[in-house]
């Protein structure tokens, strides 16, 4: 089984850049998208009804053209949840979409960006803590977890091209990286880094400015993390940096289920 995660930076925009061709060629069993920026009724039929897939989206309340997540899945989920159900503070921007299957629970998250102002940084950190609380509650019930999406933080210096220049930039702040340390300490595994400990220059996001992608001045901020008890099922992970259409590229996870 192959799963993809991609921050498309606008689903309607990426549709005009060959998204459906990529989708068909990728042949994923599950495709998780972030930053879809569209309510369900704004999507064209070819995205609302994809042959062979269950399509579920979650939008940012009344704020159109902002945030949003979606999952295209071949296997029909046993249950679907939108949001953590913990507080409207975290569930009002369409950032969390949950699918439950017999073998695992898939959580697709578009984590907030903390760069714009201190208030949003603090929101991002509260969102991180809510994610951990939610996931720990699921694990206490015996659920095995896959948590994918745009985490909006590079964990280690190897995960961005210019770590020294970005130690005061949200996305690589010590307090953000410390949360990923805590996340990992609770038993969650960064699959790509675990399977590719020495991999360098492998990024999933590049600024639109200054030809950053052409020069591969990027960040690895898009992840598949899994609970430790699911790692025995993992057979591969990759970053598909040859795929264009967004400022992010897709990342993938392979499972034996």
Low-confidence stretches: none
The N- and C-terminal alpha carbons lie at a distance of 7 Å
> How many helices does DSSP assign?
7
- Average pLDDT confidence is 94
Strand order of the largest sheet: 3-4-2-1-14-13
The CATH topology is: Deoxyribonuclease I, Chain A
Q: Name the CATH class.
A: Alpha Beta
Helix fraction, binned, reads 10-25%
Note the main sheet. 6 strands, mixed
Cα gyration radius (Å): 17 Å
CATH superfamily: Endonuclease/exonuclease/phosphatase
The appropriate CATH architecture is 4-Layer Sandwich
Q: Strand share of the residues?
A: 25-35%
Coarse morphology = globular
Q: How many discrete domains?
A: 1
Task: Please give a structural write-up.
The protein has 257 residues and is an alpha+beta fold. It has one domain (2-255): 4-Layer Sandwich (Deoxyribonuclease I, Chain A), CATH 3.60.10. 24% of the residues lie in helices and 26% in strands. The chain has a six-stranded mixed β-sheet with strand order 3-4-2-1-14-13. A six-stranded mixed β-sheet has the order 5-6-7-8-12-9. α5 packs parallel to α6.
How are the elements arranged and paired?
Blueprint: E1 2-7, H1 11-15, H2 19-26, E2 30-34, H3 45-48, E3 54-58, E4 69-73, E5 79-82, H4 88-91, E6 96-100, E7 105-110, H5 118-140, E8 145-150, H6 174-185, E9 188-190, H7 191-195, E10 205-206, E11 218-219, E12 222-227, E13 234-239, E14 251-255
Parallel strand pairs: 1-2, 7-8
Antiparallel strand pairs: 1-14, 2-4, 3-4, 5-6, 6-7, 8-12, 9-12, 10-11, 13-14
Helix pairs in contact: 5-6
């Amino acid at each position: 089984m192959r799963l993809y995660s991609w921050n498309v930076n606008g689903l309607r925009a990426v549709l005009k850049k060959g998204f459906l061709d990529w989708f068909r060629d990728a042949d994923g069993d599950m495709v998780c998208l972030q930053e879809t920026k569209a309510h369900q009724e704004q999507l064209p039929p070819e995205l609302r009804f994809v042959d062979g897939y269950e399509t579920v989206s979650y939008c940012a309340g009344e704020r159109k053209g902002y945030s949003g997540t979606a999952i295209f899945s071949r296997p029909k989920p046993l249950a679907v949840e939108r949001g953590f159900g913990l507080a409207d503070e975290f569930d009002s921007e369409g950032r969390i979409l949950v699918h439950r299957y017999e073998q695992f629970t898939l959580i697709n998250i578009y984590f907030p960006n903390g760069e714009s102002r201190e208030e949003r940084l603090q929101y991002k950190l509260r969102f991180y803590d809510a994610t951990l609380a939610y996931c720990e509650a699921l694990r206490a019930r015996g659920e095995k977890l896959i948590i994918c999406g745009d985490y909006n933080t590079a964990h280690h210096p190897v995960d961005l091209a210019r770590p020294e220049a970005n130690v005061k930039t949200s996305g690589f702040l010590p307090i953000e990286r410390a949360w990923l340390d805590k996340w990992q300490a609770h038993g969650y595994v960064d699959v790509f880094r675990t399977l590719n400990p020495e991999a360098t220059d492998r990024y999933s996001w590049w600024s639109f400015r200054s030809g950053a992608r052409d020069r591969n001045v990027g960040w690895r901020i898009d992840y598949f993390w899994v609970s430790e008890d699911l790692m025995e099922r993992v057979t591969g992970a990759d970053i598909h940096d040859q795929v264009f259409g967004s400022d992010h590229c897709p990342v993938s996870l392979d499972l034996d289920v």
